[in-house]
Amino acid sequence: MFRFEDLQIWRRAVALSDKLFDLADQLEESKKFRMAEQLRGAVLSISNNIAEGSGSSSKREFKQFLNFSRRSVFETANMLVICNRLKYVANEQEAACLGELEEISKMIIGFSRSL
Length: 115
Description:
Blueprint: H1 8-29, H2 33-54, H3 59-85, H4 91-114
């Protein structure tokens, strides 16, 4: 088992990825291929950076990857807001996902401070 698999923030990020990959699939069905690709990349980067950072040899380096992960949270949030403005995602789905992103962001900050 890899270290990141024990991290609650990684688990939450992966669970959110599952939801947003479903949204990306819906975007592709509507021929919004670029939006789908950007959304997948942004949300996947959250858990990828947590995982990559967990393999760091120093706490400083791990914190840097957590910062990258948090920045990806903001990129994902931006994609959701734009999708909502363009009526690609319902208000309720946007609100739920933004709430989860906010919680993940707080968890990343807290975990980074604990290192």
